[in-house]
Design a protein that fits this description.
heterodimer, A: about 350 residues, alpha/beta, Fumarate Reductase Iron-sulfur Protein, Chain B, domain 2, Rossmann fold, 3 domains, four-stranded parallel beta sheet, 19 helices, about 10% strand, globular, B: about 425 residues, FAD/NAD(P)-binding domain, eight-stranded mixed beta sheet, five-stranded mixed beta sheet, binds flavin-adenine dinucleotide, binds iron/sulfur cluster
């Protein structure tokens, strides 16, 4: 039994905060307390929870509100590790594993992808699987912003998926493999920057590196606030989505940075979106494992943006952009993409 | 490994984002102080019923010892001190606190009813009666009068766990204040199937629920109808007004802990603090404090991956009780997690007649907390008052729920703490 289970005071704060409970109800999803606390008492029955366990988006909201400060998301991931078996993986998860085995990417690589130019710059940019293969505009915008800010950078010639998706699937073996590979590939750098908050968090917590998220680099190092903005741009009401791994794991300061950067752009008005820090459904391997849950959460996010009368959702995370876009209804763009288009 | 962010400097740092911390922060910020509030974890405030109990004036006026309820006597300790020293006119302060508080909440859409510390009797969702003195407008507060004119329907919504009408009817034996109550279970299509938490119910209810509920309410024969909480902060005033006006009935929510009313209070107080100009950092934990003799100088705040030093002129500690980690347990002793301030309690360590050692130890654990002077100054372990560090709310000795008097007394401590803290800023 997880030794912490007895510290739960049964306050239900986690169940109320969990976005998946709100979508799924308690009948088909046990919720954070049900999984991490109650089920942890019966590890022998974990197998029966397979479907249930993989609905969690690893958004960290439950552990954040838990007054007993129980590491609920971590415990759910531990349960996933305990039942991991390649042949039992959900359809989408089996594809992730196959892609890792074949291409060292979590998704099918795109036919054309941005090319890494060799250089000896000390700043290493890790674009991650999505920005390289699904939304290359993020890769290009980041490169363009770094160039505008005169920050010399390079992308590692070879890299593997950081492993965050493998962690969510529960596959410790492949996770170790990609970590060891990356630590070999990343040589001679002084600073590491990532587009995806999931990669940022994973490099810190699993690799022991000290990466910055793009927004941290742009704000703290590149001084993006001093770069000149294009004067007149069409007026736009922007809802800033707060990705789970930025708002909760890296820290709210990144959201504050993002808001400050956006606010000073001509024509941009930030509108307050209800539940801005509620998971869009993009995390935890849920898009691959339970696409219906991920889509329902994305729709809820779009509804919040509509209620806030936003013209546009800006999301500083490739995964979020991809998932929210699936719901349609309000255009969703990545932070770097939006920013780059508005700076000289 | 935690990356160090550039250090920041503020006039006042408030640790804890519950009612006490936010109240002190708002009060300080409204006087042009640059205030940072840091908090992590669900607050007791968000779990409360969202109704504010108050220390009764008659109790406050009495001498210590002359009060019948021993627990209350202990909990008013600092106020007796204030009265004795006459440094602040208590009645004046009470009025200031409640008007500032209500104005701030009403700016955020949470209308509260109060009758200058008169106690309201309300019906809870467990069928028991409950008293408080400031309550959200659409609870049973101030509505029991209107109840006397007719009969009351208890309307349970299938799947919504907050109100079981049969339980309430059985608990109050079919009558509230002489008025007949009648339980109903009704199904709302918008709510779908299955048991649900209050927030989940509110999310489902957003999809066309109001119209469906108006029809359901209009079909009942009673002219007063009690319902479970269904609206979030943004829509509660509009939604409840609409239910009342469209059905032409007296519709109100039952008082419910661990549900929307507490979450609304928390939400409104957070918004109010931000509205007053505070910077609110949720999801951040204060892990260390640095003090130089009787002055607190700086604190370290952490996220799971980053850390930052904050220096300040004054500090307000409003970290709540044991449950939220505002206090810690070491063996049987309640201790200060920062190992900086004096913690204690006002009771006797020896068991009272008829009590076991265990009972006595439990009482001590529940009642222990930070000790403060009448100006809410925290003390060094040796008992010397701090120049610039103040305590507020349920983290203080005897203020923790359920031995304390609840939110009313705590807001008062927060106000006093802010009064003295601002002199240091
Ligand atoms: C179920 C329930 C029902 C209640 N009903 C009522 C009622 O109807 N009426 C009434 O008047 N009172 C009621 N109370 C009591 C009242 O809610 C509490 O006493 C009051 O909310 C305490 O407020 P606070 O600001 O002192 O602490 P809290 O609201 O607990 O806030 C303190 C916060 O600080 C955080 N914190 C602690 N340490 C740190 C740190 N180092 N860094 C960052 N953050 C930290 C804690 O996690 C916590 O979230 C109820 C309480 C409960 C639990
Ligand atoms: S991590 Fe998020 S989705 Fe998973 S159980 Fe916790 S709150 Fe729910
Ligand atoms: S928030 Fe924490 S203490 Fe409360 S029910 Fe969930 S696990 Fe238990």
């Amino acid at each position: 039994m997880a030794p912490f289970a007895n510290r739960c005071i049964k306050c239900d704060s986690c169940q109320k905060a969990c976005p998946v409970v709100t979508i799924e109800g308690l009948r088909s999803f046990s919720g954070p307390r049900g999984l991490a606390v109650d089920s942890s008492r019966f590890p022998e029955d974990a197998e029966a929870l397979r479907d249930n366990l993989y609905k969690c988006t690893a958004c960290f909201r439950c552990g954040d509100v838990c007054p007993a400060r129980l590491p609920l998301t971590g415990q759910i991931m531990a349960l996933r590790r305990s039942i991991f078996a390649k042949d039992k993986a959900l359809g989408g998860h089996a594809r992730i594993l196959a892609n890792i085995d074949q291409h060292r990417r979590s998704i099918e690589p795109a036919a054309r992808r941005p090319e890494a130019k060799p250089s000896d710059a000390k700043l290493l940019y890790f674009p991650g699987c999505i920005a390289e293969n699904r939304l290359p505009i993020i890769y290009q915008s980041t490169a363009s912003l770094l160039t505008k800010g005169k920050a010399a950078f390079r992308v590692p010639e070879r890299w593997s998926c950081c492993g965050a998706p493998l962690e969510k699937v529960g596959d410790s073996e492949r996770l170790r493999l990609v970590r060891e590979e990356n630590l070999r590939f990343f040589d001679g750098f002084e600073r590491l920057v990532t587009s995806c908050p999931g990669c940022t968090t994973h490099f810190i917590q699993d690799y022991g590196l000290e990466p910055l998220h793009t927004i941290e680099l742009l704000y703290e190092v590149v001084g993006v606030r001093k770069l000149p903005a294009l004067p007149s741009h069409r007026k736009v009401k922007v809802a800033l989505h707060q990705p789970c791994h930025l708002a909760r794991t890296v820290g709210q300061h990144v959201i504050d940075y993002a808001a400050e950067i956006l606010q000073r752009l001509p024509g941009v008005r930030l509108v307050e979106m209800e539940d801005a820090d509620r998971c869009c459904g993009g995390g935890g391997g849920v898009v691959a494992g339970h696409p219906d849950v991920a889509l329902a959460l994305a729709k809820a996010k779009v509804e919040s943006a509509k209620r806030a009368k936003a013209d546009l959702i800006v999301a500083p995370c490739p995964f979020c952009v991809m998932n929210i876009s699936r719901a349609g209804g309000v255009e969703t763009v990545d932070f770097t993409n939006f920013l780059d288009a508005r700076l000289k | 490994m935690l990356r160090e962010l550039p250090p920041i400097k503020v006039d006042a740092l408030v640790i804890g984002h519950g009612a006490s911390g936010l109240m002190a922060a708002s009060a300080l910020a409204s006087q042009n102080n640059n205030v940072l509030v840091v908090g992590k974890g669900a607050t007791a405030t968000s779990m409360s019923t969202g109704c504010i109990s108050y220390i009764r004036k008659d109790i406050l006026r009495q001498e210590r010892g002359a009060i019948d309820l021993e627990a209350l006597a202990r909990s008013v300790h600092p106020f007796n001190d204030i009265m004795e020293r006459g440094s602040l006119a208590l009645e004046e302060v009470l009025l200031q606190v409640s008007s500032f508080f209500q104005r701030s909440l009403s700016d955020q859409g949470l209308e509260m009813t109060d009758d200058a510390f008169h106690f309201f009797d309300m019906l809870t969702n467990a069928g028991t009666m409950y008293s408080c003195s400031i309550a959200p407008s659409f609870t049973a507060s101030g509505r029991l009068d209107r109840l006397r004119e007719g009969s009351l329907a208890l309307l349970g919504i299938e799947g919504h766990r907050d109100l079981d009408p049969r339980l309430v009817a059985a608990m109050c034996a079919g009558h509230v204040d002489g008025v007949r109550v009648r339980p109903y279970w009704r199904k709302l299509d918008c709510m779908g199937h299955g048991g649900m938490t209050a927030t989940e119910a509110a999310a489902r209810f957003k999809n066309g629920g109001t119209q469906e509920l108006i029809k359901t309410i209009s079909d009942l024969e009673e002219d007063s109808v009690a319902i479970p909480p269904l609206f979030g902060l943004q829509s509660v005033h509009k939604g409840m007004s609409e239910l009342c006006s469209e059905s032409e009935k007296n519709v109100f929510e039952l008082v419910t802990p661990m549900s929307l009313p507490g979450l609304r209070l928390q939400d409104a107080m957070e918004r109010s603090a931000v509205g007053h100009g505070c910077h609110l950092m949720k999801n951040h934990l204060v892990t260390r404090l640095e003090v130089k003799r009787e002055r607190a100088v700086s604190a370290l705040i952490e996220t799971p991956t980053r850390r930052q030093a904050v220096s300040f002129n004054s500090l307000i500690l409003a970290t709540g009780d044991l449950v939220g980690g505002g206090l810690a347990l070491a063996g049987r002793e309640v201790v200060d997690p920062f190992s900086t301030f004096k913690v204690g309690w006002f009771g006797k360590t020896e068991p009272l007649p008829g009590q076991t050692r265990y009972d006595a130890a439990m009482r001590q654990v529940v009642e222990a907390g930070y000790l403060v002077t009448h100006e809410m100054r925290l003390m060094t372990k040796e008992g010397r008052p701090f120049e610039n560090a103040f305590g507020a709310g349920s983290t203080l000795a005897s203020f923790s729920f359920p031995t304390g008097v609840g939110l009313g007394g705590e807001l008062l401590t927060a106000w006093i703490a802010a009064e003295y803290a601002k002199e240091g800023s």
